[in-house]
Every structure is written in structure tokens, then in C-alpha cells.
Design a protein that fits this description.
Length: 838
């Protein structure tokens, strides 16, 4: 029986010997190519020896007998008595000798007298899939000398009986004595003069697995874990370690070593200039992501990892790694979708944790000792949480904090409990009042606190019941923060990614105004980051990004926009879309747009990006835009460029447009508006605005036929396929390549498309003219089926351009012989129709 094991003596299989934290550190040291600070672990056997030789087990059992964890005061009293018993007990001589001898050996290895070490608790049931102890046991930093080491090891043993640990084991059904404790003793990394943080090999809220999410701040990592600071955050694309997005946190304070006090830490202010900088460089971020991927690859599952940047050695180190537990327990085939049915005033915003919606009466608390004041299903409002808050968090209907990042204690425990939380609001405790009714909305990545208790829906989707389709079903998206959530849907990418939301919400200023102020980089980075997130979220599936399509009045509404925009009587038909991109003045803004898109493609190595040009009135205009895209470096021959088919000229001259563009996407709103001459915003004419009008459907059918004979792609973006019965059938019958809808109706649309494809398949089995007598007869049959009665001359308009008059007549003869046609003589013309099935 050993009382101490060095990291090089243990691996992941030794959890029962040294607990999860220690076992994983041994595994990382020996089996994974990542830097780990040296150290050793006391064993579970040593813990048993301590409990046995000090006669503590019987005393602890007696104190826990009859415990009711809901009686918080009683739990606190019993827990405090147990911890005192452990801390006051004498360390058995053999254990003391083993621990101090190992510390002396570490001295020799490091060549430092009384080296500063971190002493961390490692429970034998900790860090296992299905169990997250989330800091329930204690960590002690900057421990120096043998005497302090023994004290801190006993403190770690005592922390096995913190109130929250006792309560957690009771709730999870763990025996208090089946769980044992190891103390990890590890060289201190000097993050107090560097940085530290936490990273997940996934997005921890959506469960999206193709990114590494890194949080970090200056100083010791405890402030990141406890939520004392809102840390910097980086999102790294796993495919090439490109940084998708990064945000500077509020790092106003940091925890550092107190040189004047032995073995103690202190909080100090961070200078303003440092607060506005990132705590680590882009290269260091990529280094961390590389280590994260090695760890994930070794364990074969998403991981939760703690790291430090040693400001003395200028090196990165991994100090902890454990399996991620929240997303791991979810059923991948079930998606719960929360959505509000109504809205009110937004009181606060912060980071959303999870994706649920909760509501109740707010209760502002300063301390977890106020638990007896807190009622079931109230909304907990506090500055931040640590493990002492967990009994209250379990009772809460939702949680709101002033501080904390997405890897803080409040975030981790809220996810585990399935309680919606909005964290980092900055001033929730002063803004909200006791008893105030609120709705806590985490249905998007920006968490919102709404006034009052609002009505909401919860829809459950079973993905294993969703069929695959030949026709691509895609989604329309504008808000990048929703991309990781939406990417969980079983869709084939994005048919319409709008830039306008990024420009209005994340920039808010007219691009020409930014150029005038010399702030072009802000515009480029906002577009690069937002569009890159969407592109990466759906990789490798296609993402069609529409170039900016603000109208002049919408651009004028942006800050500084009025001086750059004309005052137009009808902006809908005015200076918009393609006409802007080669305009003598606006082309400067278009150049920034092109730069941003090129950076998306190059920085993240995304080969799934397609660019779409909106409102392109003429073929020459299309050529001008393509020329500008080449001039500004966007079009290097490695991307497809589509035209938004939303103007009748796009349909009429589709053959010519197909020589300029690689494909089309039908914009049903503008196409319907311009085909029918109906202002889509007119209440008076709203009944006339209908995408099902025969003229609109004929335009779509014509475009598909012309595009396909030019080997060009055709999609459609709009909700007509989901909102109008039979529209999906119509599109599938026309052999459209892709249908893109809003995310909330994506699953419904997939089902409609699958049903339509099955109908087409059955019809083809019953009668396939094309396969029987060739393309002309097939074209005639399909034209009559879709358009109804027509003359032979009219048939030429609805068949392939290679089909001539003689071929039409031959096809008619064959179909008539087979009894597939009816013939009608009227007004000197012969009209043909399909025979009605009897």
C-alpha cells in the first residue's frame, strides 16, 4: 500500500487510487503530448488510513445520521462539525513522513527550497461521466513548506465534507465513505504574473463540437472559475485552429500572490490599458487549442480543461482535464426548442447559459446563508456564485448574476441542473427588486431578462424520426450568435446568410462613415467574425452569404449614414443591391465587404462559402459586380457566386445571367412584389401579395428549367414552402436543388419535402415517359402536368431548348397513341391535355 504516487506512476485507470483529477494529470503527463507541471498525489489508501487511525469514521457517521439536506441550517451545523474534527486531528506519523518526503523529492527535482505548490482535492468519484463536482472540494495555492503542506492536505480531506459536497452525494446516491479523497500536490505555475482560465473542446451551451471555447483572465484562475471576472473569450475552429471570434472581458481585478503575507493571495486592480487588451495572444490561443485537441483526441470525448500561462517561464501548462458532463448526458436525437409567444420590455441582458426559458419572482440575495429566505422556483439574483450557493441554485426557477463568464461556477452548475441562467449582467442586483416578476430567456446566446412572466412554448423534436431528402433543405440565418444552436438541426447548410443584422447590431454605423474616421478595420472584423461563425458552424455544408442589401433609407438610419444616402421616394426600387457595389462612392465600402469575406475564406480555410449578389437588374450589372469582386480580391476562382433571382429580368434573361453567375436563389418576396406590381408593405394590397400566384410559380418553373439546362444551381429562400400547402410539392416537382427556410420551420419543411419526393418517386414508378420514349415526350408530359391545357406551339416555351417543333409533334403522337392525351379543337386551334385517371 502506497501513500503517495508521482504523476509518472499513474494514469486514467487509477481513479480509485488517486481520484479523477490526479489520475487525469498522470494520464496527461505520460500519454498526451501536452505540458504538465510536475507533482504527486496522496492516495485513497492514505485517506482511509487517516480516517481509520484518527477514529473519525464513527464520529462522522453519527453526525450524518438522520440528515435532511433540505434543512439547510442543520446541514451547515453538521458539516461544520465534521470539517472541524478532520482539521483538528493529528496527521498519523507514517502519512506525515510519506507526504513530507515526497515534498523534499519535489524540492530536489525543481532545485528550489520550499517550492510553492498548489494543493488540490481529487475525489475518487470526481470527473467521471455523469458526475460533476464543480469545485465542491477545495484548492489551496502558493503552499510553501512541509508544515503548511500537511495542514493543506488535511484541509483538502475536510473539504470532502463541505455542505455542498454532502448535499450533492446525498442527491446523487453516493455513499459518503465510498467517495475518498486524494490531494494533488503540484508545482505552482506563476499565473499570478501571467494568465489562467478554462477551455472546453466544444461550445458548452449549444453542444456544438467543432470548436474549442477558451476563457481566460489575468492572475490566478480561481477568479475565472468563481466568476469574479468576466473573462476574455475565444472561439477556435477545430478544422484549422483559426480564431472564429474573440471578445475582451471585463478584467478589472486579478488574484495574485501576496508577497508580504506568507502563503496568501490578494486582489489587485488591473490597469485600464491592460483591461482593454486580451490576456493572451492569438498564437497562445492557438497553442492552447492545439493542446485541447490532443487531449480530446486521446480521451475520445469532449473535455473540460484548466490552463495557466506562467508569466515567469513564459510557458503554457495544463493543470486539469476532465470529461465534459452536461452535453454528454443529453440525447443527441432530441432537440428541445424554447420560444417566446409574446414580448415585453427587456430589463437586462447578459450571457445565456443553456437554451431554456424560465420565469418567476426575483429574489435578490447577498449570501448563501440567506437560503431560508429563498422559496422554490423563485429567480435567484446575486452578484456571483460559488459552490456554497448550490443548495439555493437547485431550488431556483432561473438564475441571474452580475458577474461570471461561460466557464464560471454559475455557468457550469446551471447547465448541470438544467436551470436557465443569464450571467455577467453587471447590475442585476441593483436593477431588479425582490418580488419583481421576470422571464429569463436563454433561447439565444444573448440572455434577456423580460419584464413580467411571459408565455412561451417548448417543442421537442426527435431527430431520429426526420428523413433524409434528395432536395437540400437549408436555413436562413442573420444572427451569428444563433449559429451553433441552429447547426444542430439536420439541415444541409445555409441558403441565406444575411449581412444586414451584423452591420446593424454589431457595427451600427454606416461603413462610409467608418472609412472617413479611419476605422475600416472595425467593419472588416465585425463581418469576418460574424460570417466566419456562420460558415464554420455549418461546415462542410454549403453556406450562401448574401452581400449587403440595405436600402438607402435603412443605411441612412445607421449612425453617420444620413450624409451618405440619397433621399429616395421609393427605396425598394432605388439605390440597393448590385448597383451599390460598383458605384463610384459606395465601392469603397464594398471593398471592405470583399476583404472581410476573403478573410473568412482564408483565415478559417472555409471552402463551403458561396457568395450571392442581390437585386442585380441587368446582365451587364452582374459583370460589373464580378469584376469588382476580382479587383478587390474576393473572387479568386475558388468560390461560387450566385445571383438572387428576385426581378423579372432575372427570369427572362436567365440564360444570359447563367453565363455570369454559377447559380440562382429565388427571393420570393421581391419576385412576387415585382411580378404582380404589389408593394409588399401595403396593407391595402396585402391580399394580392401571394407567392402562389400562377405568374410567380411560372417564373420559378421557367428559371429552374433555364438554369438546369445551363448546369446552374437553383435554390429558394423564403417560408412559402412551409407556410403554403402544396408549395413544397410544386418545387420538388420542378426539381429545385435547395429550399431554405427560417430555422423554426426547418424540420416541418424537411417532412414536407420528403413527402413530396415520395409522391414524385411513385409517379415515376407508375409512368416515366422520359425513360420510355426519351426527353421530348417527358418534357411534354411534365409541361402538361404542371401547366394544364396548351397548344403544340405553346409547349415549346416549357420544354428544353433542344426540343424542336418536330420533336414536339412526335412526342404528342406517341402520348396520344398510349392514351395519355385528350385533344380539343377550339377557335381554330388544337389544344392538348393529359387524360384524367379513372
Amino acid at each position: 500500500m502506497k501513500n503517495v504516487l508521482w504523476f509518472d506512476e499513474i494514469n486514467a485507470k487509477d481513479t480509485e487510487k488517486v481520484g479523477g483529477k490526479s489520475a487525469n494529470l498522470g494520464e496527461l503527463s505520460n500519454e498526451v503530448d501536452v505540458p504538465v507541471l510536475p507533482g504527486f498525489a496522496t492516495t485513497a489508501d492514505a485517506y482511509d488510513t487517516f480516517i481509520h487511525e484518527t477514529d473519525l469514521r464513527e464520529k462522522i457517521e453519527r453526525l450524518l445520521d438522520g440528515l435532511d439536506t433540505d434543512d439547510v441550517n442543520d446541514l451547515q451545523r453538521r458539516g461544520e462539525q465534521i470539517r472541524s474534527l478532520i482539521k483538528e486531528a493529528d496527521m498519523p506519523q507514517k502519512l506525515r513522513e510519506s507526504f513530507t518526503k515526497s515534498y523534499e523529492d519535489l524540492e530536489k527535482k525543481l532545485g528550489v527550497e520550499d517550492p510553492a505548490v498548489a494543493v488540490r482535492s481529487s475525489a475518487t468519484a470526481e470527473d467521471l461521466p455523469g458526475a460533476s463536482f464543480a469545485g465542491q472540494q477545495e484548492t489551496y495555492l502558493n503552499v510553501e513548506g512541509k508544515q503548511d503542506l500537511i495542514k493543506r492536505v488535511k484541509d483538502c480531506f475536510a473539504s470532502l465534507f463541505t455542505n455542498r459536497a454532502i448535499s450533492y452525494r446525498e442527491d446523487k446516491g453516493f455513499s459518503h465513505f465510498d467517495v475518498k479523497l486524494s490531494a494533488v500536490v503540484q508545482k505552482m505555475g506563476r499565473s499570478d504574473i501571467g494568465a489562467a482560465g478554462v477551455m472546453f473542446t466544444m461550445d458548452p451551451d449549444s453542444g456544438f463540437e467543432n470548436v474549442v471555447t477558451i476563457n481566460g483572465s489575468y492572475g490566478l484562475g480561481e477568479y475565472v472559475v468563481l466568476g469574479e471576472v468576466n473573462p476574455d473569450e475565444f472561439t477556435v475552429f477545430k478544422e484549422n485552429l483559426g480564431i472564429i471570434e474573440k471578445s475582451v472581458g471585463d478584467k478589472s481585478v486579478k488574484l495574485v500572490r501576496d508577497e508580504s503575507e506568507e502563503n496568501d493571495n490578494k486582489e489587485v486592480d488591473v490597469p485600464k490599458s491592460e483591461q482593454e487588451q486580451f490576456c493572451v495572444t492569438d498564437n497562445q490561443v492557438k497553442e492552447l487549442a492545439k493542446y485541447a485537441l490532443r487531449i480530446e483526441d486521446h480521451y475520445g470525448k469532449p473535455m473540460d480543461i484548466e490552463w495557466v500561462y506562467d508569466g515567469q517561464t513564459k510557458e503554457m501548462y495544463i493543470v486539469q482535464a476532465r470529461p465534459e458532463t452536461v452535453q454528454a448526458e443529453k440525447d443527441e436525437n432530441v432537440i428541445e426548442e424554447y420560444s417566446l409567444n409574446e414580448e415585453s420590455d427587456v430589463v437586462l441582458e447578459g450571457s445565456a447559459i443553456g437554451s431554456k426559458i424560465g420565469q418567476g419572482k426575483a429574489h435578490v440575495l447577498d449570501s448563501p446563508k440567506q437560503i431560508d429566505q429563498f422559496e422554490e422556483d423563485q429567480v435567484l439574483v446575486t452578484d456571483m456564485t460559488d459552490p456554497d450557493w448550490e443548495p439555493i441554485m437547485k431550488k431556483a426557477g432561473a438564475i441571474i448574476t452580475n458577474k461570471g463568464g461561460r466557464t464560471s461556477h454559475a455557468a457550469i452548475v446551471s447547465r448541470e441542473l438544467g436551470v436557465p441562467a443569464v450571467i455577467g449582467t453587471e447590475n442585476a442586483t441593483s436593477k431588479l427588486k425582490d418580488g419583481q416578476e421576470v422571464t429569463v430567456d436563454c433561447s439565444s446566446s444573448t440572455g434577456k431578462i423580460w419584464e413580467g412572466q411571459l408565455d412561451f412554448n417548448v417543442d421537442e423534436h426527435h431527430l431520429d424520426e426526420i428523413p433524409e431528402t434528395e432536395t437540400d433543405v437549408q436555413v436562413n440565418i442573420g444572427e451569428p450568435s444563433e449559429a451553433f444552436h441552429i447547426a444542430q438541426l439536420p439541415v444541409n447548410g445555409v441558403g441565406l446568410a444575411r449581412e444586414e443584422f451584423i452591420i446593424s447590431s454589431h457595427v451600427g454605423e454606416h461603413p462610409l462613415s467608418l472609412i472617413e474616421d479611419g476605422r475600416e478595420d472595425e467593419y472588416v472584423e465585425a463581418l469576418r467574425s460574424g460570417l466566419g461563425k456562420i460558415g464554420a458552424a455549418f461546415y462542410p455544408d454549403q453556406v450562401v452569404i448574401r452581400l449587403s442589401d440595405f436600402k438607402s433609407d435603412e443605411y441612412a438610419d445607421l449612425e453617420g449614414g444620413a450624409e451618405f444616402e440619397p433621399d429616395e421616394a421609393n427605396p425598394m426600387l432605388g439605390f440597393r443591391g448590385a448597383s451599390r457595389y460598383y458605384d463610384e462612392v459606395f465601392q469603397k465600402a464594398f471593398e471592405l465587404e470583399c476583404k472581410a469575406l476573403r478573410k473568412v475564406i482564408d483565415d478559417l480555410e472555409l471552402d463551403n462559402i458561396t457568395v450571392m449578389v442581390p437585386f442585380c437588374r441587368t446582365v451587364d450589372e452582374g459583370k460589373n459586380v464580378r469584376a469588382k469582386m476580382k479587383e478587390y480580391g474576393l473572387d479568386q476562382g475558388d468560390i461560387d457566386v450566385y445571383a438572387m433571382a428576385e426581378i423579372p429580368s432575372n427570369i427572362i434573361r436567365a440564360d444570359e445571367f447563367a453565363e455570369v453567375f454559377d447559380g440562382f436563389s429565388v427571393g420570393t418576396n421581391d419576385l412576387t412584389q415585382l411580378t404582380l406590381g404589389v408593394d409588399r408593405n401595403s396593407d391595402k394590397l396585402k391580399d394580392l401579395f401571394d407567392e402562389r400566384d400562377p405568374a410567380v410559380k411560372k417564373s420559378i418553373k421557367t428559371l429552374i428549367n433555364k438554369a438546369h439546362r445551363n448546369n446552374a444551381h437553383v435554390g429558394i429562400c423564403g417560408d412559402a414552402p412551409s407556410t403554403h400547402d402544396g408549395y413544397a410539392d410544386f418545387l420538388v416537382h420542378q426539381n429545385i436543388d435547395a429550399i431554405s427556410v427560417s430555422p423554426d420551420v426547418a424540420l416541418e419543411t424537411i417532412l414536407k419535402v420528403a413527402e413530396a419526393e415520395e409522391k414524385v418517386s411513385n409517379e415515376n414508378i407508375e409512368f416515366s415517359v422520359s425513360n420510355t420514349v426519351g426527353q421530348p415526350a417527358g418534357d411534354v408530359y411534365e409541361a402538361l402536368k404542371d401547366q394544364g391545357k396548351m397548344t403544340a406551339r405553346k409547349m415549346l416555351d416549357y420544354t428544353d431548348k433542344a426540343v424542336d417543333k418536330d420533336s414536339i409533334n412526335q412526342a404528342i403522337g406517341w402520348l396520344a397513341k398510349e392514351g395519355k392525351l385528350t385533344v380539343e379543337h377550339r377557335d381554330g386551334e388544337i389544344r392538348y391535355d393529359l387524360e384524367t385517371e379513372k
